[in-house]
Amino acid sequence: MGYTNNGSEWRKWFDQPDGTTERVNRGGKGNKYGSGANQANTGTETRVDMNQISVDPSAITQSYYTNPLTYENYETQSRPVYQQSQALKDAADRLQQHENSKPGPYESQYNEQIQGLIDQILNRDKFSYDFSQDPMYQQYAQQYQRGGKLAMQDAMAESAALTGGYGNSYAQQVGQQTYQQYMEDLNNIIPELRDAAYDMYQDEGETMRSNLSMLQTEDDRDYGKYRDTVTDWKDELNYFYNVYSDMSEQEYQRYMNDSAAWEADRAYWYQKAYDEQQQKNWEKEFAAKYGSKSSSGGNKPHPKDPIQYTPSGSGLGTDASRTLAIQLAKLKNSAK
Q: What are phi and psi of 51, to 5 degrees?
């Protein structure tokens, strides 16, 4: 037996002994377990593998009235008693087991990383630049200072050579100017270094947002797998519920039918016994009333002839009553 989902219509099939398939439409059957009913209709049929369970739906009780009533036992044989079959109990256990296997709440393996990146992005310091703390500036400063000192020495040496090798204030002034020019060139690269630092700041932010997006994509993929698992669980739970519900309904209906058959048989045998007892009472009354006449040689009326005999107290003393008795007798004899 299996189930398919075709839109809002559940269809159930039972495999027959001859290999054929009997399908029963169950239009509009509700989804007992909620959100599964809101899933999009793909137009395809999903079958649940019956190998997943050990329940045999055909093993439910076939009859609760295996020993029909007879004339001898209709007063002593009790009404059939409803008891769940083992197959139905197994179906209930399988349903409960599957219900207990409900997937737990989703737990993201990326949640801490995602929350950490979100916190970094939202609480990130605004961009600021201090060239004195810039390693690139410090590297340039060392180069320019070294170059400025060398250039200053060369300029002073040249000035001293022009003046006969004696140091003078002019040579010092020329050397200082040369060094100062190097320092000005160093300062001129600060805006470039600031722009480079800002680009790095922006790139760092983009990298964090890109990493966040990647983690969220992976988390969404994992959540999608989790939702597929939950959906499969709900579909299977719905299936096991339908199996149990159908088995229970069929089994209990068989019990109700068998109870009705028992009641009909009991009523039949009771009526038959009642009719026989009435006949015996009639014959007994007849014998008591007319038995003495038979010994005197008089005509003894037949006990079943209403024309010749009417039970005492029956009120059938008039011609109309005798005619009615004849008709009743004919009806009674024709019914036997």
A: -70, -10
**Structure confidence by residue, pLDDT tens digits, 81-110:** 999 999 999 999 999 999 999 999 999 999
If you compute the radius of gyration of the chain from its CA atoms, what whole number of angstroms results? 54
Q: Which amino acid, residue 61?
A: T
Rounded-to-integer distance, Cα 40 and Cα 196, Å: 52
List all residues 6 or more positions away from 171 whose beta carbon is below 8 Å from its beta carbon.
155, 156, 159, 160, 163
Compute the distance between CA of residue 296 and CA of residue 206 in angstroms, rounded to an integer: 133
The Cα 188–Cα 79 span in angstroms is: 109
Residue 27: phi, psi to the nearest 5?
Answer: -65, 140
Per-residue pLDDT of 293-308, as tens digits, reads 555 555 555 555 544 4
Query: Residue 238 and residue 257: Cα distance in Å, rounded?
Result: 28
Distance CA 223, CA 106 (A): 7
Question: Is residue 333 pLDDT above 80, yes or no?
Answer: no
Give φ, ψ of 215 to 5 degrees.
-65, -40
| Cα separation, 336 vs 332, whole angstroms | 7
33 close to 234: Cβ distance less than 8 angstroms: yes
pTM: 0.54
Sequential DSSP letters for 231-285: HHHHHHHHHHHHHHHHHHHHHHHHHHHHHHHHHHHHHHHHHHHHHHHHHHHHHHH
Q: Which residues contact 130 (CB under 8 A, 6 or more apart)?
A: none
In one-letter notation, the amino acid at residue 310 is T
Q: Which of 186, 182, 193, 64 is nearest to 136 (CA)?
A: 193
Torsion over CA: 88, 94, 96, 98 (sign): negative
- Residue range 182-218, pLDDT digits in tens: 888 888 889 999 999 999 999 999 999 999 999 999 9
Element (H, E) at 27: strand 21-27
Q: Which residue has the tokens 């009333």?
A: 289
What secondary structure letter does DSSP report for 148? H
